[in-house]
Amino acid sequence: MIVLDGKATSAQIRLEIAEAVKALYSAGKKTPHLCAFLIGNNGASETYVAGKVKACEEVGFRSTLKRFPETISQQELVEEIEKINQDPEIDGLIVQMPLPKHIDELTVTLAIDAKKDVDGFHPTSVGRMALNLPTFLPATPAGVIELLKRYHIPTSGKHCVVIGRSHIVGSPMSILMARNSEPGNCTVTITHSRTTNLKELCLQADIIVAALGKPEFLTADMVKDGAVIIDVGITRVPASDTKSGFRLKGDVKYDEVAPKCSAITPVPGGVGPMTITMLMLNTLKAVELFGK
């Protein structure tokens, strides 16, 4: 059984990105510059954005963090986004989710220039992904694809079951696994809360991508021997025996599922570390595609 180590893989990719940045500098081209918007004081968002700023420093990017109060209006936020759209010094813009309830996430997503959409959520990015054209891929699904590629996990002709249909993970994951590329070329079944025969479908799967946000949902009796298991879920559950008072759990009951697998991602240390690294890769791609 192979443990797909996202932490080690992420570290290697960041070294490669840092080398690419040095090459850009040597060629007289601009240093990639990522801008992040943080609205309000959400603790988890603070942590995620801090991780992105740190990653920028690590690979040699420039970064700008713009903070806004939770009371900012939707129109004011859109106007701030437009300023970044017009700024030639900034290559990528991310608006950290979730947003305050009075701000519509789709409106914000559509406001970002598709050429700076390093999150890969803009309809232009999604459409180009579906057509297998060069574009920004959503970071988490891109991280899964990169893990499969670097560990040489066979995917062509395999049956992949994706559990979850979110626009952030499940839906793009199904597109990437089905498209004519490597990794890819899977027969994909996308499942969700209305799926009535989920266990039966999972038992047929060569590859399962669990992305529904329910801790330890996927159990050993749902997995056939030799399957590849990709656990995208990450949930904080109370734990009195830890200093933090919580423990991170994935969507897969790891201890009982892992012995049946040919390969599996752990939580933490699997898909999670890859997400920010793929965001860095998208920002580098923005310079390569659109930078001067």
What attributes does this structure have?
single chain, 292 residues, alpha/beta, Rossmann fold, 2 domains, six-stranded parallel beta sheet, three-stranded parallel beta sheet, 40% helix
Proportion of beta-strand residues: 15-25%
> What's the story with the biggest beta sheet?
6 strands, parallel
Quick one: CATH superfamily of the largest domain? NAD(P)-binding Rossmann-like Domain
Structural class: alpha/beta
Beta strand count: 11
Element pattern in H and E:
EHEHEHEHHHEHEHEEEEHEH
User: Biggest sheet, strands in spatial order?
Assistant: 1-11-8-7-5-6
What's the CATH topology label of the largest domain? Rossmann fold
CATH structural class of the largest domain:
Alpha Beta
The CATH architecture of the largest domain can be named as 3-Layer(aba) Sandwich
Q: Give me the number of helical elements.
A: 10
Domain module count: 2
Report low-confidence residues grouped into runs of 5 or more.
none
Could you tell me the mean pLDDT? 95
**N-to-C terminal Cα separation, in Å?**
46 Å
Shape: globular
- The Rg value, from CA coordinates, equals 19 Å
Query: Helix fraction?
Result: 40-55%
